[in-house]
Every structure is written in C-alpha cells, then in structure tokens.
Fold each of these.
Amino acid sequence: MPRPNLQEQRRAELLPALARAFATDGYAGTTTAGLAAATDLRENQLYRLWPSKKAMFLAVVDHLYDQHVAWWEAQLADRPPDAAIAHILEEEGRHRGESGLHRITFAGLSEARDPEIRAALAGMYERFHAYIVDVLTRRATNRTGAAKKRKANKADVEQASLTAWSLIALGSLTNIARELDLFPVKTQERLFTQVGGALIDPKPPH
Amino acid sequence: MPRPNLQEQRRAELLPALARAFATDGYAGTTTAGLAAATDLRENQLYRLWPSKKAMFLAVVDHLYDQHVAWWEAQLADRPPDAAIAHILEEEGRHRGESGLHRITFAGLSEARDPEIRAALAGMYERFHAYIVDVLTRRATNRTGAAKKRKANKADVEQASLTAWSLIALGSLTNIARELDLFPVKTQERLFTQVGGALIDPKPPH
DNA sequence: ACGTTTTGTAAGTTATCACTTACAGTCTGT
DNA sequence: ACAGACTGTAAGTGATAACTTACAAAACGT
C-alpha cells in the first residue's frame, strides 16, 4: 500500500482559490480552465478531486458558509450577548466583503434552476437564520433574568425569526451595494448600527 | 423608399420574451439559441435588432426597471401618500415575484465584473432609491402640514435615505426567499407590513 | 409593376466549453 | 528495490457557444 491518500487535505487547501475564481466570474462564467489556472493545477487534476465543476462549486458554498459561521462564533465567544450582537452589527459588513460569500450567493442564485445548487443555497440561508434566531432568543431569555429561566415562548421566537430575516436582508443589500458601489462604507455602517440596532432593540436609548 | 422601419417597435415587443429567458437561465446560462427560441425568431433576426447578447440583456434591464417604476406610480396615483405606502408595502412582494426583475438582478450581479452591466444595475438601484426617498420625504413634509410647507431638511432626507435602503433590503431578501422557498408568503407579508411598517413609522399605533 | 429594403430560413465559422485519455514521473510501505 | 498507487504534463474529444454569411421571399412607396 504505497503513498497515503491526501486527497481530502488537498481539497481543503484548494477551496479558497476555487472560491475566489467562482466569486470573480460567477458560476456559468467560470471555466474549468480558469479554475485550473487559479489553483495552479491542470484541469484533470481538479477532476481527480471532484467529479464535476458543479461539485467544486457546491464544495465552495459549504466551505464559505462554515467559514462565516466560524467568524460569528468567534465574535460571540467571550462577550456578553448584547455586546456580541452590537459588535457583530458593526463588523458584519466589513467581514462579508472580505469573504467572497456574497458573490458566491449571487452566482448560485443565477443557477437556482439547478436543484442541487438551489438546495445548497437554501440550506445555507436556513441554517444561518436558525443560528441568528438562536442567538437572539438566548439573549432575550438571558435578559429577562437567568433566575426565571423561562423558556422562549412562541411569540418571542416568531419575533426573533422576523428580526433575523431582517438582519439577513440588511446583509444582502449591503453585499449588493458593495458590489455596485451604491453607497459609502459610512452609510453601510449606519444601516447596520442604526437600522439593525433598532430592529433588535425597538426602544433605542436616546 | 420601400418598407417602413419598424425595428424600434419590434424591439419593444420582444423584450418581455427576452426578459423571461434571461430570468430563467441567468445571463451566462442563457444562449442566443435560447433567446431565439423564446422569441420564436432565428438568431440572426435578433442580431439585426441588437448588436450583441449583452445589448439584449441591458435592454431587458431597462425595460424591467421602467415597468417596476410604472407599477409604483400606478400604486401611488389617486391615493393619499400614507395609504399608498401602506398599499405598496403589502403588494410589493407579490408584484416583485411576478415581474422577473429580481432574477435579472441576480443574473446581472453575477456579471458585475462587466462594467456596462455593472453600471446598468447600479443606475437602476440608485434611481429606485432616489424615487423612494422622494416618496418618503413628500409624505413627511405633507404630514407636518402643507401650510408650513417647510422644505425637507438635511437630517430628514438622510433618514429617508436609510429607510429607503432598508426597504430595498427587505425587497431583495424577499426575492431571494421566493427564489429558494425560504419562507411562506405569510412571513413575507409580515416582513413587509411589520418590519417595513416600523421602519417608515417608528411609533406604530398601538 | 418595379426597385429597394426588410423579413425569413438555413447553414456555416471559429472559439471555447466541460470533461477525458495517455503516459511518464514520483513517492511510499514493505 | 520494487510494486502500486498518486502526481504532473500534454493532447484530444464532442458539444455548443456567440456571431456571420448567403440567399430567397415578402412588403412598401412610387
């Protein structure tokens, strides 16, 4: 049994370069030749690691989603819930721009006819939404006093769900705006802190 | 001088079919053969009306934007500003789904590297934003009393600008959600009426 | 009816696409 | 050292892309 199988590791190493390529040119606009150039490999070497261009794209989607959630986790760790959320609202815009996640999303949305791509994107949104709802309700129950330890009731969760979707909406527009240079970073920050802040905290301290 | 030139009219007639094709398959995913099939013409007949596939796409972007604004105008006409806005918030989601505007936007965003496509999209967003700001400030000044007829001041306009972007954000997410079946229509309605309503009207009547 | 122009139909061109095959090197456990 | 799997390089495959060319058939003003 000669030579150990390092394919899994190789895949992981190549994903950032693939992500960059897909983010730059979209799904249909990215060629396998381009992917090979981006990874400094030949096309058939990529095809030894994934069965198709689509598989490469789906792997990229998963990779970026994991990366994004990991970033959230890092922001939440070692901070009290309120401070963590405020911090995320401030930093989310900046971070989103750096990862290529939003461009991959646009690319995927253009291919939403394809059931696998569609499912991958939908799963990503749903998991992210669930995650935010969890963060929001954890914070809400903490606030009402750990002593009571009341379970988040149905109305609370429903409200948190709407709020979570709204935050995701702000994030989506911010991505579009960044892509098209619609408004300066300052406006983007105000969107997140002012509007986003108002959303999660109906009575602003003024 | 034989046969009048009806090209302009022909172009206008064909745009809806072209829009449908681009909306279905994205920009790069749509082939000129597909466009020909969608319009029931041959490829070279299309090329007699537009110089390239890109020109066809840009024409579609303009067409859908004009259509969307016309719809807004129709909603605003013959309604007092407040009622008109409420009505738009209720109907916007439904209407957006029917026109293919959002899918065209996704398609374009995947090609945002192309300066012409990028400019067309950016222009569309900016014009739409300006339009909403105008609607919002008209309403605000109306409210403070037509008698005073005070000019909208800078802070008002800035606030309206943020609100307008937020509404556009909700619209964008709604489109994504519709595309990916993220949540039911009811949630979508609540997003617009509850969150959207709160955005344009910080103190809800309760 | 005629001359000019637009319209319709078909075929072709060149490039590039996703994906494959062939084969020579190279590494590893034994 | 050597078998057997992995790695690298090159070339090739058929399909299909955007876009053209060629030419016959209408349509219109005169």
Amino acid sequence: MPEDHNILDLLLDDQEQVTEKQKKILEAAVEIFSEKGYASTSTNEIAKKAGVAEGTIFRHYKTKKELLLSIVAPTMTKLIAPFIINDISKVLNTDYDRFEDFLRAVIENRRKFAKDNMTMIKILIQEIPFHPELKEQFMKNIGKKIFDRFTIVFEHYQAKGQIKKMPAESSLRLIGSTVIGYLMARYMIAPDFDWDDEQEINRMISFIMNGINAE
Amino acid sequence: MPEDHNILDLLLDDQEQVTEKQKKILEAAVEIFSEKGYASTSTNEIAKKAGVAEGTIFRHYKTKKELLLSIVAPTMTKLIAPFIINDISKVLNTDYDRFEDFLRAVIENRRKFAKDNMTMIKILIQEIPFHPELKEQFMKNIGKKIFDRFTIVFEHYQAKGQIKKMPAESSLRLIGSTVIGYLMARYMIAPDFDWDDEQEINRMISFIMNGINAE
Amino acid sequence: MPEDHNILDLLLDDQEQVTEKQKKILEAAVEIFSEKGYASTSTNEIAKKAGVAEGTIFRHYKTKKELLLSIVAPTMTKLIAPFIINDISKVLNTDYDRFEDFLRAVIENRRKFAKDNMTMIKILIQEIPFHPELKEQFMKNIGKKIFDRFTIVFEHYQAKGQIKKMPAESSLRLIGSTVIGYLMARYMIAPDFDWDDEQEINRMISFIMNGINAE
Amino acid sequence: MPEDHNILDLLLDDQEQVTEKQKKILEAAVEIFSEKGYASTSTNEIAKKAGVAEGTIFRHYKTKKELLLSIVAPTMTKLIAPFIINDISKVLNTDYDRFEDFLRAVIENRRKFAKDNMTMIKILIQEIPFHPELKEQFMKNIGKKIFDRFTIVFEHYQAKGQIKKMPAESSLRLIGSTVIGYLMARYMIAPDFDWDDEQEINRMISFIMNGINAE
DNA sequence: CATGAATGAGCCTTCATTCAT
DNA sequence: GATGAATGAAGGCTCATTCAT
C-alpha cells in the first residue's frame, strides 16, 4: 500500500508544468478555502496571500471554480487510492490473514492520510453538497468503488468464517461511521485534545469486531 | 421525552409576533440556505421565493446573518432538547431498565427529529465551521451538555453491571458516530434508497451493544 | 422693534393646529438636521427622536422636503423681520438720532435672535445652496428687502451728514460681513470661548464707524 | 509668495501615479459634490460623469468618503499655504514696509486662489461641519496656524507704530470677516454681478485700515 | 388621527473576470 | 508568462413613502 503524504505535493507532480507561482496559488487557495469556505473567499484575497497578481490566477485556472476543482478532484482520488488496487484479493491472501489485521492496516493508512491532508478534506466535505458535478463524481467514483472493493474484502473474510453474515451496505456503514467518526473527532473537531491514538484505535477495532460479530 | 416535529413551526410559536410574511421568509431562507449554502444565497433570491420585497427581510432581521442565526440557534437548542431533562436518572430508573431500551428510545426520538428537520440540520452542519460564535456556542452548550448527561447515564448502567468500563469520551464517540452515521446516510446522503428502518436500527443497536461490551 | 425668541415657538403659533406630536417632530427634525445635515438625516431617525411613528411625520408633511421647508422658510422670514417694518424712516427719526445708535440696536437685536435660533440658522445656511427654490426666495425676498431698507437707512444718515458717500452695495457688504462674521464666530464656530460681548460689540461698532468714514 | 492656480492640477501632481481616469473621477466628483452636496451625490452619478465604471472609483478610493477627503484635505492645506512661510518676519521687513501693503498682497493672492478654486472651497465649507475629523484638522492646523502667523505680523506692524493696540483675536476676526465676506460675495453669492474689483479692494482696504485705527 | 409593516428604488461596495501592456 | 487597471453585474442594506388597520 503506497505512502502518500500531503496531496498538494503529489498534486503538483501530476501536472506537467507547475510554476512556482502556481504552487503558491494552490497553497493559498487551500488555506483560505478551508478557513472561510469557497464562496466567501475572494480571488483577490488568494492572490494577495499567494503573492501574485489577480490576473495570474486566471492564467492558470479559467475560473475560480476550476481552481476549486483542481484542488478537490485529486483529493477525492487520493482519498480512495488504497481501495483501488487492482488485485485486492491477492493482497488479502498474502498480507492479512485476519480481517482485524486488514482493518487495522486500512485505519492506520487513512489516519496518516487524514492527518496530512485535513485542510483539503475539509474543503471537500464542505463543497460537495453544493456542486452537483462533485456530488455525482463522489457517489459514482468514490462511493461505488469503495463499496465494491469492500464487498469483495468482506465476502473474502466471511468465506473464511471470520465474520458473520450481514449485508455489505450495513456493515460498511457501521464500520465506516466508526472510523470516520474517529478521524473527524481526532483531526477536525478536537485536534488539540490530548489523544492516545494507539489505545483509541485498539478500542475502536475491538468495538467494530465485536459489533459486527454479535450473535 | 417530548415530541417535536418540524422546528420551523415551534420556532414560530416561540416568538410572540410572527407575521405571515416572516414565516414565508424563514421558510424560503431555510430552503435556499440548505440548497446552496448561506454565502451563495442572495437576499434578493430569498425575497423572491418568499414572495415579499427585499426590504421586508431587513425589517424583520437586521442583517442577513441575523436571519441565519434565527434559524440555526433554535435548531441547535432543539437538537439536544431530549438530553437536558433535569432529573434524567429518575427517568432512567422509571422508564428504562436496560441500557439497550434507553438507547433504542433515544435513537427513535432523534430519528424522528432528523427526519422532520433535515434541511435545518444541514444548514447547521454547513455553517458551524465558518461562524466562530456558532462554533463556540455549539461546543459549550451542546457538546458539553450532551457529554455530561451521557456520562450520568453511562455510569448509571455501568453501576447496574450492564456495560463494561470504558471512558465516557470514547464510548460516546463510538456510539455517537454509529448513530449519526446512520442518520446522515438515511436522511442526507441516500434518502431515496429503500430503507428498512426497523431492521437497520436493530442491527445498529446490536452492533453498539456488542461493540461496547467486548471482552 | 419686536422681541422674538426661539422661532420654533412662534412657528408653532403661526399654524392653526399644532399637535403635541407635530411639535415633537419639528423639534427632533431641527436638532438632527442641524447636526447631521438634511440629506444624511433619515425620517426614521426623526420619528424615533420625536417619539412618534414614521407615518405620523408624513401625515403632517407630505414629504421630507416639506418638513425641511416648514423649518427653513419661517426662519428666513424671521431673520429679516426687523428690516421690514413698513415706515422705517419714521423709526429712524424717532428712535435713533445717530447711525451708530441704529447700528447698535440692530446688532443687539440680531445677536439675540442668533443666540436663540442658531440651530435653525445653521440649517438655513447649509441647505440654501442645494435647493434652488430656497436660494431664489432668499435672494428675492431676503436679500432684496434688506438691501432696499438698508439703502433708505443709509441715505437717511448720509443726508444727515453722518456718513460719507459710498455705494450701498459696498457699505452693506462691509458692515454685513463684519456683523455676520462676529455672530458666526460667537455662536457657531467658537461658542464655548469666553466672550466679552460688550467689549467685542463696542470694538466692532467702532471698527465699522471708522471704516466707513475713512477720508 | 507662491502662485497656485487650480488645486486640482496641483493635487494631481502631488500624487505620483494619477491615471487619466482618476483625474476624470476627481473632476467629476468636485463638480457634483459642489453642486449637490456630498451626501446627495451618488457614486453612480460620479462614475457616469467621469465616463468610468462605478467599480473604477473604488479601485482608486476605498470609500466614497476617502474620495471626499482626497479633495478636501489638500484644499485645506493650499488654503493657508501663504501663511506658513517659515521666516515670515523677514518677508515683512524685506517686501512690505507698510501693513497696508502686506494686506493688499495677501488679499490679492487669496483672491486669485478663491477665483481658481471656488468649487473646492465650497465643498470644504459645506462638509466641515459634518465630519469631525475635518473639523478638528481645520481648527488645529488651519485655524491655529493662521492665528499664530497673523499675530506675528500684527505685532510686527504694531511695533512699527502703524497699528493701534487691539487683541489679535478681535483684529483678525474683523479683518478676516471683511475679506472673506468680500470673497464670498464676489465668487460664491453673486459671481455674475458686474464687479469693479480694483475699486472694491481699495474700498475694503481703506475700510479695514481706518477701522482698526479708530481713535 | 396615529401606527408601523411593507415596499422597491437606489445606494455603496465587492468581486470574478478581461485585456492592454 | 505576468501584471493590475478596468469593468459592470450583483450583493447587502437603507430609506422615503404608502396604506390597511
């Protein structure tokens, strides 16, 4: 499973030509969007923080919205990156004997991602409801893909007798809620609280494992 | 535990004098705010949808923001209403022998609330991050109150030997995530999906009860 | 020569029916107009200060401008009241042997008027340039009348050999400037300065008398 | 004593960068402010008269008020420019043997200034009462400075035995009123009247000289 | 006669976007 | 490629005036 740190860096590698200025623009945009929201951020403000002329923004991004999308779309992709490894069942056979091990690996992996990219995830969460294209892309690409992969994994471990029968929708939702709830509390709502991550994650995994194996 | 339906109605009862026009303004604002977000909604648009002159909005609410707050503040209050019954331990002794029964009652109660007030809850969630006063009020009034009540309840049932020891923070987060995750999936993300609520709730309660009683 | 104190009172006597409310409105309007200027004063503000409903203002005065005129027009009239006594030459023969006595009487009379009505005079001065009707009325009624009367008076004392020959325009302007300059300094620009009125007036009269009698 | 013609030109020279558009805006603003008053002038109107977009005004002046101040503040400075020559007593010794000569020079100088800048002076006079910062700046900078210089001058000629003893406040007020009265009549109240400036100024100087030397 | 809710035109200001330099 | 002056539509808000009660 690949290590990905701050998306902004990856994001800049993806595109062929990235001026120093363009990088400054993206950094400024990410920071202000996350702080005040897309609609309440002016391009003038971004330009100032980035140290470029307002016109320069529009040389790189046709519209303000395109700037937003250039941030949000890659974030969405990276968000599910670990779930779209092609031959996931092989991974499972090879690396993780038990569902619990798999779960722990995924949680740790996404925790790192969340930690490194919280500002961009915030923007993603805030803006999805207001941009139908984003919503649709999210539902179709992200939601569906995760669901499909998860189903394979889930059935894999059910076949192994490690998990009781339950519809994938429900189990995914229950597990997803628990993990996402933790990550949001940890990195969005109360990042300054004194967290004992190891213990919390153990507790969470135990909660999930027992929860889905209720008799 | 009180029945509360659509807040908008209660909201209108709270204030002594509520013109027909004012009601129209509130309804229109709630709908458009929830659809496009506060910052992207123009007062002109609200006025048109409400069928009043733009000036009329400002006769009732000094600023656009005051209009937002007049919607969001009561929503916050009603959101936690069931948790601020004064003598909650009595309620527990009298009404709910088992933690599971209590949990089921709370879930059902908040599910009704969520169902009736999803538009306003959406606005609340969207706007809290961008309005420090709201954030603070939420943290202090809502967060703290719920946590305190929950701790009493939790220790009540722990004393009865029904629940294993676990810090209230963690258990509240785990239970909260699960329930909120369900309500958001149910009424925000996929309200049109064909839900079997009874089964999902049973599954969720079983998930939680087993989860927190892991040995 | 008649004694007239605060115009507002006279103003109210002139009109047949003056409600208590109407008086309140006028008082409020005078105060705020003088403080912030006509254009920057809102009828809402006047209504609040007067303790009446905004509609009440428009019951008594068709428009905001009519309210202004109802204040300014009488002020203009009273301002020149002492100069339109019909048989002024009789007055002169009877009451004032010397031009200096006449001058002193006029100064003292207008000083009292200025003292009692400075707020309204301020409004008059401020608004005249922006309302052609006022300007015209001022020029025609006030300016002309004063000039005519002054000419009679001036020639009266010239005939008596008390004053040297000089065009009435010039002498009126020189005397008028001196007196008005004093009254404005005294009651508008530096009313809080510690004035010795008697001495200043003596000095001014001496200045004028010597000035116009230059050889 | 320096020659200064229309302030607007000087005003534009003062600032390094003055777009053609900015000049148009200033010209338009000066004209309309003077005609209708600051409060009754809309930025839209200024923009139209200047032939620019309304937004352009706010690119150069953050607010409408800043536009006003950018006109009024320099006017105030230029208004007293001739009085703040550093070594004024030298000027007196060198250039003007008699007070009368000095007086005549000042009058002529300020007459030219008034003639060239009457619109801006009008605005200054109209707006000072309603903007406390202006009032204060006027009192402190302008009023005080003129008074101080005048006192020096006055005492200079008193020492020479050309003028009788009189408090500087009074004499300045008497002389100032006379001169200002003339300039206002000449250029504000009745500019279209057929003035014989030479004669009027002679008359005025004779009026003042005799007035202050009353025995 | 008095009220004050309602109006809608108009105000100052902001903002994404364009384009000549 | 980068700039920033210029644009003009749109935004939030104010205000004189009307009118049903």
